């Protein structure tokens, strides 16, 4: 469970979840916001984002597995209704793979070659764009905006505090 | 950097860890993006819901006034208060109009530092006008009138549907709603050059209202129209309508900027708006119009209507008599015009279960009427007269067909054609239904688009009318393009603006922009945060304005009177009162930021933190204040209507009459004493007249916690006003 950092509106929204437990009604509201067509369904390629909007943190791979490993065409063309979405969300909620502040810091420490609490921004960019579930250049720019100092270094504890505060 | 191979060697030992770490960060980032997107969506939803419900309110008000017009004797005082807005042609012969709009005896003083215009207008002057406005100059009323007269003459020569072509390898630039935002127009001209022989433009309506430079935008567009009549094309929008302008700020802008001659300018603009073409067709393949279509839209009919008869799109035109020279100012003419309706009414009343019998209306005054009215006037209107609400239901009118002249029916048909064209919105489902959210026009589906385009041999429909985050949006299998050119429309950072260019290949090339240097410096998060805070502020205002109804609704869930309700009940109660279809559970913490009690919400606590500050309000009943606050936009509109000479003041007597009108409309009980109290409070200098602006300023929502007093609702202000209110973290 992430620490309840009390800034920003969406943080308090998630605090509500953590304190009182979410209900299907809450999920249904968020689901409705993403329905651009008006058929009470969302496209397969929106499912992961809705889960993230609701405070979960699945990988794309986990979601694809739940959707039954759909093809690229399926992702855009197929749609799922709320009743189909909810069990998938439950699975993600119940999965043990939750990351907190310490996990993020540990994760970044892997790239701290000198063990001085900083990582090279440039390296981070390469890693994020080549490993795992690759990010695009724009995504990386947005993520790193304002984080590198004049030497191109990122203090990763500060970085994690920053990213957890939004 | 080194090449990829050596990097992966470096990580070889801990590559599993590296990958896991990368995934962690990537997952986190994607979550952040998804949450931001959700906030952006509901913020948008808030602004849009409130905007459209304002339009709906305006139409309801107008229909209500029309209803009163139909049902009261010509001589009644109340009728006289409002009849002038239905009397569209006060002076009818051209010679008389020329006299009325004569600018020749308006002197331009020596100290005037704005541009001087000579006619016929030249390119240099048009360009000079743009520069002058960029430098915040104001055009003198003499030149305004002169320019408008020339524009009027020019527009009268144009057909309802302009047909243009992209021959000679010319690209045509099309712009959407500008809504008085001069910065956006200047930005478009900067990026795309001003109109010229090589640079044709189509401007797709809604040039005015909401923004603060509506008149300047009009003057620029009209100048270029005069200088390049074959290259500049203007389509009418639903805001090119004096009734709408009364509520949404254009009327006020003109009267403020042109204190002496504003009234004449507005009158001339009424005529000009009615003469604006309805649509433009490019290369016979692409149709450009402001709102949209319906399943009955027929370009053949639209090409033939007398468009200038529709001074306001909200009402069908006067019936033309044989000799137009015999038209008089007599208000009895209005009675004649409505005689087909009276036939509708007579038949309908036989089947009505309403409490107020039709016949007894004839001789009643408003006072008597208010005692008897039991129903919502707007609902009655739906049943009784061809209002913008019931045009979607052709059936009742068809029943009457036998007894009503075909001329009247075709007037209704024509009217519906124009209304649909100016007010409709696309929807994703097939079919065509009345647009009840806005109160006019339809929602039309992809099947209607398909059918319409085929019937008229067209390939694309370009329209505006709806704000889009990216400035544009395709729908209906890319056969409909919505184009919106007013960036930061809801607030700084809320959306981009866009314009489109079409070459001979008729492939749309879209260009986006955002008119504020501040924007580029904000990160996405900050930008969404700002807009979100504004939206929430507006929403809190709206909720507070419905305090009594909300508390009533909460109480139905709280039979033990504990003062607490659970979240689900809170959300249901709020939606049942506000009717905005918003994700209330999600918004709850932002709206009602107080401590919870084991998951229950104390519904009194929040209201206690806010108070409406009226003018020396202590002796005025709280619920009256609340009603005033909630409907202040409607009040202001009605005051401006009653203020027939657009002076900014109304007499005490008219003020009283207005209150009677309003109390009927709002089904409020209001005694003479209460009105007298109100009058005493407001007429500070005791001169027998009330300053409308001062009256409106007097009603404000104050936050006891915040040092900042909130001004009027954002939709009477502009984006700039909002920016000034930013910065207080308590808001």
UniProtKB/TrEMBL annotation, chain A:
Superkingdom as given in the UniProt entry: Eukaryota
Gene Ontology MF term list: calcium ion binding
PROSITE patterns found in the cross-reference section: EF_HAND_2
Domain EF-hand: 22-57, 99-134
A single cellular component GO annotation: contractile muscle fiber
The name this protein goes by in its record: Myosin, light chain 1, alkali; skeletal, fast
Organism this protein belongs to: Cyclopterus lumpus (Lumpsucker)
Lineage of origin: Eukaryota, Metazoa, Chordata, Craniata, Vertebrata
């Amino acid at each position: 469970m992430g620490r309840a950092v009390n800034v920003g509106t969406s943080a308090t929204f998630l605090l509500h979840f953590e304190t009182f437990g979410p209900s299907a009604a809450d999920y249904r509201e968020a689901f409705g916001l993403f329905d651009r067509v008006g058929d009470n369904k969302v496209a397969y390629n929106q499912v992961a984002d809705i889960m993230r909007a609701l405070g979960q943190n699945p990988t794309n791979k986990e979601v694809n597995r739940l959707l039954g490993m759909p093809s690229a065409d399926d992702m855009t063309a197929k749609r799922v209704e709320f009743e189909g979405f909810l069990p998938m969300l439950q699975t993600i909620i119940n999965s043990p793979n939750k990351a907190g502040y310490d996990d993020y810091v540990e994760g970044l420490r892997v790239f701290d070659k000198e063990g001085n609490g900083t990582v090279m921004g440039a390296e981070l960019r390469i890693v994020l764009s080549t490993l795992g579930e690759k990010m695009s250049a724009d995504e990386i720019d947005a993520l790193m905006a304002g984080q590198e100092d004049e030497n191109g270094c990122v203090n990763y504890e500060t970085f994690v505090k920053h990213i957890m505060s939004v | 950097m080194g090449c990829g191979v050596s990097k992966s060697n470096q990580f070889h030992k801990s590559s599993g860890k590296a990958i896991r770490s990368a995934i962690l960060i990537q997952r986190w980032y994607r979550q952040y993006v998804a949450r931001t997107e959700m906030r952006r969506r509901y913020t948008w939803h808030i602004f849009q819901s409130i905007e459209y419900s304002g339009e709906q309110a305006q139409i309801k008000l107008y229909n209500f006034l029309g209803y009163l017009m139909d049902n009261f004797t010509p001589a009644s005082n109340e009728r006289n208060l409002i009849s002038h807005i239905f009397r569209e042609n006060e002076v009818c012969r051209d010679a008389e109009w020329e006299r009325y709009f004569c600018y020749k005896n308006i002197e331009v003083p020596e100290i005037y530092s704005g541009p001087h215009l000579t006619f016929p207008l030249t390119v240099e002057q048009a360009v000079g006008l743009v520069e002058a406005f960029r430098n915040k100059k104001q055009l003198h009323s003499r030149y305004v009138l002169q320019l408008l007269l020339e524009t009027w003459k020019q527009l009268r020569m144009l057909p309802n549907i302009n047909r243009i072509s992209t021959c000679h390898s010319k690209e045509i630039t099309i712009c959407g709603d500008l809504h008085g935002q001069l910065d956006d127009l200047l930005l478009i001209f900067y990026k795309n050059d001003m109109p010229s022989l090589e640079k044709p433009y189509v401007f797709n309506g809604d040039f005015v209202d909401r923004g603060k430079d509506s008149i300047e935008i009009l003057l620029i567009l009209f100048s270029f129209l005069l200088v390049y009549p074959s290259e500049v094309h203007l389509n009418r929008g639903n805001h090119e309508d004096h009734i709408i302008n009364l509520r949404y700020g254009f009327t006020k802008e003109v009267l403020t900027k042109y204190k002496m001659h504003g009234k004449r300018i507005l009158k001339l603009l009424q005529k000009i708006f009615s003469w604006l073409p309805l649509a433009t067709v490019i290369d016979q393949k692409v149709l450009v119009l402001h709102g949209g279509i319906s399943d009955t839209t027929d370009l053949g009919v639209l090409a033939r209507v007398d468009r200038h008869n529709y001074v306001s799109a909200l009402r069908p035109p006067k019936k033309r008599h044989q000799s137009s020279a015999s038209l008089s100012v007599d208000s009895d003419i209005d009675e004649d015009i409505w005689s087909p309706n009276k036939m509708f009414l007579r038949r309908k009343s036989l089947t009505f279960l309403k409490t107020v019998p039709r016949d007894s209306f004839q001789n009643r005054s408003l006072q008597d009427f208010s005692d008897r009215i039991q129903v919502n006037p707007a609902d009655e209107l739906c049943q009784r007269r061809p209002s913008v609400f019931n045009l979607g239901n052709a059936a009742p009118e068809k029943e009457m067909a036998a007894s009503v002249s075909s001329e009247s029916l075709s007037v209704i048909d024509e009217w519906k054609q124009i209304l649909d064209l100016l007010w409709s919105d696309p929807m994703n489902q097939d079919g065509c239904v009345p647009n009840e959210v806005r109160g006019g026009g339809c929602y039309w589906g992809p099947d209607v688009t398909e059918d319409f385009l085929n019937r008229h041999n067209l390939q694309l429909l370009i329209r505006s009318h709806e704000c889009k985050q990216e400035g544009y949006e395709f729908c209906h299998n890319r056969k409909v393009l919505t184009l919106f050119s007013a960036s930061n429309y809801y607030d700084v950072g809320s959306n981009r603006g866009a314009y489109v260019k079409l070459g001979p290949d008729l492939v749309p090339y879209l260009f986006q922009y955002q008119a504020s240097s501040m924007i580029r410096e904000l990160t996405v998060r900050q930008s969404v945060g700002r807009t979100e805070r504004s939206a929430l502020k507006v929403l809190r205002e709206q909720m507070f304005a419905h305090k009594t109804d909300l508390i009533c609704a909460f109480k139905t869930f709280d039979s033990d009177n504990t003062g607490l309700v659970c979240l689900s009940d809170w959300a249901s109660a709020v939606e049942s009162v506000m009717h905005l279809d918003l994700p209330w559970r999600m918004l709850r913490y932002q709206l009602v930021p107080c401590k919870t009690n084991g998951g229950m919400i104390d519904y009194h606590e929040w209201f206690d933190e806010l108070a409406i500050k009226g003018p020396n309000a202590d002796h005025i009943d709280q619920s009256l204040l609340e009603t005033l606050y909630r409907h202040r936009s409607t009040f202001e509109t009605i005051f401006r209507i009653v203020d027939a000479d657009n002076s900014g003041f109304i007499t005490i007597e008219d003020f009283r009459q207005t209150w009677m009108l309003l109390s009927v409309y709002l089904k409020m009980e209001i005694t003479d004493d209460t009105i007298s109290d109100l009058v005493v409070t407001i007429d500070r200098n005791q001169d027998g007249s009330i300053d409308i602006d001062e009256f409106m300023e007097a009603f404000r929502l104050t936050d006891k916690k915040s040092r900042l007093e909130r001004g009027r609702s954002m939709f009477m202000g502009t984006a700039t006003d909002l920016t000034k209110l930013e910065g207080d973290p308590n808001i």
